[in-house]
Amino acid sequence: MKKFSLALLSVLMITSILLAGCSGASGGAVIKVASQSPLSGGQSSVGVDIKDGADLALSQLSDALKAQGFTVQLAPYDDQANPDSGVANAKQIVADPTVLCVVGHYNSGVQIPSSEVYHSSQLANVSPANTNPKVTDRGYVEVNRIVGRDDMQGAVGAQFASSKGAKTVYILHDKTTYGQGIATFFKSKSEELGMKVLGFDGTEEKANFDAILTPVVSANPDVVYFGGMFDQIAVFIKQARQKGYKGMFLSDDGFDSPEAAKIAGSGLTDGNGTYYSTVSGPAKLYPGTAKFQTDFKAKYNHDPLPFAAQGFDSMGICLKGIEEATKANGGKLPSRAQVATAIRALKDYQGITGTINFNSKGDLVQAKYFVIQVTSPSPDKWADNTIAQTLDLQPPQ
Amino acid sequence: MKHRFLASPFYKGIIFPLAQMLAFILGSGTVLSLIIIVLAFVLRGTAIDQAAVAKNGTDIMRYTIDNLPQVLIDGVTLGFVYAAIALGYTMVYGVLEFINFAHSEIFAIGAFVGVEFLIALNNAGVLAGASVLVSYGWLVLAIIAAMAASGLVAVTVERIAYRPLRNAPRLVPLISAIGVSFFLQDAIRLVESLTTGEFHRIIPSFGNFDDRISLLNITLGAFPLKIDLGVKSLWVIVAAVLMLLILNYIVNLTKLGKAIRSVAQNQSVSSLMGINVNQIISLTFFIGGSLGGAAGVLYALKFTRIDPYVGFFPGLKAFTAAVVGGIGNLTGALLGGIVLGMLETFAGAYLSIFTMGAFGAEYKDILAFAILILVLIFRPSGLLGEQVGQKA
Prior knowledge:
The complex is a heterodimer of chains A (397) and B (392). Chain A is α/β, with parallel strands linked by helices and 397 residues long. Chain A has helices at 2-21, 44-61, 63-67, 83-95, 108-120, 134-137, 150-163, 177-192, 210-219, 230-242, 258-264, 289-300, 308-328, 336-344; strands at residues 30-37, 71-78, 99-104, 124-127, 143-145, 168-173, 196-202, 223-227, 248-251, 274-278, 349-351, 354-356, 367-373, 386-393. Chain B has one domain (17-378): Orthogonal Bundle (ABC transporter involved in vitamin B12 uptake, BtuC), CATH 1.10.3470.
């Protein structure tokens, strides 16, 4: 009996070792594109859609690479909108040699430290949503983005407030790199345009805004500008309206999410309304997105949220870059540095959000900025918000 | 001979505790208002005043008085929430001489149960068309559900994590409590993230909770005086007062309460008197836990958004409040809660303008904890605590 069980054990061991050895893809090599966005936590609704947009692009646009015998996979990571998680994931990503490109992040404060890790391994990073100038100002050849920058976005916001006749403005931010960054740009442009800045405060508070609201409501500014993310700003707007503030709210692209309407409801349309500047317009603006919208809805059962289309395009750019690098490498698997150079060198990439060309820093040569007005307290009508202003701007040199 | 009225349950059960609460509110409100008005008076004409005029267009005295009514109301509301949570800490300490650090998570569980109940009702379409009274009814139901859930969790936690350690050195159950606190935080996060990836919850809007009732809208000479009260704040205050009255009744006017007080005084002698000590301790945890749960729903109502870590700061501040008032003393918890709530709201509203923006509103917590340190240095047993000598 003992001899039999010993024999059985050794047979099982050998089989499992053989099976483990056979786990690689049969045929060509594996190429992975990683994605990093918040998949859990308060901003996960948008983060999951960025990942899903990238996944959709992978299923639709990887034919050229498949024809060359490669298997292409998505490796999604959850950065929880937290810089520490982002960096920890980044270290895992660069340790996996099959990852040739990263689509991410959603929060600039997470992208900036994570991209230091990507840069040390020359891993290409295409960002669908990061707007802080520091993302590309460091001049890394690996980092590119397909949206505009906050120094332009903040200025656009300030000019819009001024054009609406605002004389006084109270500025708040959420103390993150992104929120504080764009609030600072808004502030300098406001002062330039002659508007009076009544206050500039940062807060990490997510629920009890009583203390912050007292000076804001008593100062009664024409505009309250809040640089930050929708989950915090919407609660603030709701409480501010309850305290009797009737002026205009102005925010940034972090506010762009139907969750804001779910939280604040009619607070957004009361008084002088709520506006936000953004670098990603509603999907109907972009001619190529009709098919994307139907495909996304068919696969994931809901309309794509803001930045999902950018997630799609970022993945498309990654795949195109890998394709070009493979061709230049004679059909063999390219190195990460080669992929990064190929992506930067792309000319007139036809994405669903427009034609994409990168300048020497990795910014778009020309980017669109929008100021959008919230027209309905219903979250289902978020995509129908009216566009108050559209601008095409070049980044600062 | 004691006047019959003074000994009647009506007086002892309703008039006296209400008078006590009113005295605490008026006392702390008056003291803090006087301090801030005197400060504003002294600072007239200084650089701080000029900075205030530059920023708001009103001088510092005007700013102080304009905001005072609203700050007082917010302070009372917050104070009652802290008092309700502090009572949980203080009751357990009174009976077991042990700080239940998991109480902040009991508060969070109550908040989540109440909010999930309301969200489920909202998804079923029941809340949208409900009239004002019906929506009040639903809220009461949510509070009761939260109280039951929190009470049960508190009793379970006591049974599993504290009772086996009852004879261990004092530090051991304390560490166990901290461990339970972490466990519950992540348990809430796990359960909440099962449906969507998000683990925060927003309380749905229903009834007339978003309205404000205008109490006063007059012009005193050159000063327009406008005081309005949010329906939510009114609800929080009324609900908290009711709960505190019921608690006072249970603890002071029933046989059960007498048993709790006797176990708090001396556990071994109480068991000699025929009291089932384990049962009484479980009951204490249940009552304290359900109060915390109700406070959770009220907190969610007032502040809209809750996440699994919502218990941490209010729990810490309520614990501070219990200590400031004298831990182990129910009236002390009430006083401590109100004082701390008032202090925090005053600090939050006035700190920024009185320091010319050097200290923003987020430094209000420093003030609350500084008071804790001062009280512990100069009056370690708290404002209403007995001066207990060193136990042998």
